[in-house]
Each structure stands twice: as structure tokens, then as C-alpha cells.
Amino acid sequence: MDVMIQWTYMTPKKREVVLTSDFLPADEALRLAEDFEKTGRVKKLCFIDDNHVVWSKKELNKLLKEMETEPHDIIAYFDGGFDNETSQAGVGVVVYYKQNNGQYRLRANRQLDALKSNNEAEYAAFWFLMQTLEELGVHHLPVIFRGDSHVVLKQLSGDWPCLEDDYNAWLDRIEEKMNELGIQPIYEPISRKQNKEADQLARQALEGQTITSMMELTEKG
């Protein structure tokens, strides 16, 4: 989690000056804030995250302590598939994360109705991934998102426009949830070969196999 420090500084001539820093990792920002306070000239100090949420020093310290026992260092994969004959869709997600000094992998899939194409299944898969992250308790953290649907990732990053109303509705829903959870997304398009796990889960969903599993990984993974 990155934050910007904003502090009101009292000059030797008793003039108030509001200063701001660049975005820094939250723990580093807290250490710097403590140094600022040692000058005895800090009248007011707060922290602002990427979503413009303002935190006091006490609130930010509490948040970081809570995050130590919550999922972090997250890499999330997604994929969607569609069967034209049955009009069924399958979505699959894989989430790698650390928690309580352990490394874990969560795998999940679902079969979906009421979708129209393989493209829409990819948007639905990303939405399912957002729901999975919310259930896992992920919030106010950077998350690396990987998938072979470059269209979805490029549109979410703002690099490519989306001209279809149906797809825009999915994007709006995803971005709203992203903001609600305070997730700082890092989008990394990958090849189909690199997305085998999520692809397999989507295929299994199309075959009627519902999977939800979590396992702790050994050092060898």
C-alpha cells in the first residue's frame, strides 16, 4: 500500500506551510512522519492513499498491523470460456498470496448462464475474480492481475477504449468493486500457455465440474 504524506509545517516565523510527499510504501511513510514530528514544527499530519482516502497516523498504523495477518503479495489469474452449442460459459481463477508467513494458492471456477460470447465470458471471469478477492479479504493492497485476454486488461488499464455497451457495463462493475476494496491494480497480459491453470478451471466448469480449493505451498511450490 502506497500513501502520500501531507503535513502542515510551522516555519520559524510562525507561518503555516502545507507540504506533500511523493507516494511511498506506507511503512516508509510512517517512519518519515516520525522524523518530521521530531522537529516540533508539525501542526497537522495525515496520509492519503491512491484512492484519495485520508488516514491519520493512528489509523494507518492500525491498518498495517491488520494487514500482517491478511492476504498480501497477491498475483491473480483469470480466464473465461464459452460453448456456442450450449450457450454455457465457464470461468476460472487462481490466486497466489502470502498470509501469516505462509504461501497459498486458491483455485475456483463457476459455470454461468445468460452470457453471449467468449469475450463476455472473459469479463465475467474477471468479475468472478474480484468477488473471490473480496471473499478472501483482500483490500487496500496492490494486486497483480494476469490473463490472456489482453482486451479486458488493456481496457481496464485505460490503454484501449471499449465501444460495446454490454462490455462497458462489466468494466464499470469491476472498477467500482476495485475502488470499493481499495485495490491498486497492476495489469500484466500473458500468453495462453502462461495461463494454463485458469484455462483448465474454466474448461472444467464448462464440463460441470465445480472446484473451490485452497492449499498451502511448500518452498518448491
TrEMBL record:
InterPro entries named among the record's database cross-references: RNaseH-like_sf, RNaseH_domain, RNaseH_sf
Gene3D superfamilies found in the cross-reference section: Ribonuclease H-like superfamily/Ribonuclease H
Residues covered by the RNase H type-1 domain: 70-207
SUPFAM superfamilies per UniProt: Ribonuclease H-like
Pfam family, one: RVT_3
One annotated GO molecular function: nucleic acid binding
PANTHER family cross-referenced by the UniProt entry: POLYNUCLEOTIDYL TRANSFERASE, RIBONUCLEASE H-LIKE SUPERFAMILY PROTEIN (PTHR46387), RIBONUCLEASE HI (PTHR46387:SF2)
Protein name in UniProt: Ribonuclease HI
Organism: Parageobacillus thermantarcticus
